[in-house]
Give the backbone structure.
Amino acid sequence: MYKLKIIQIGNSLGVTLPKEMLAGMKVDKGATITVTPGPDGYRLTPYDPEIEKQIEVGREVMREYRDTLRALAK
């Protein structure tokens, strides 16, 4: 469990994330994290549901056109 203090950052408010937390999420400076509401509060995650949808569409295309893609790869 981490307790984070809200600090002033310019005209905004923010928190700093401990190195251990960033390492656990496998993110570093410049990475994007997604905040999603949940029943007990909010969840921070490097997982982006929109990218997952795009990956699934790509998988469907590869399944549907498997033979064509295989022929093009030769």
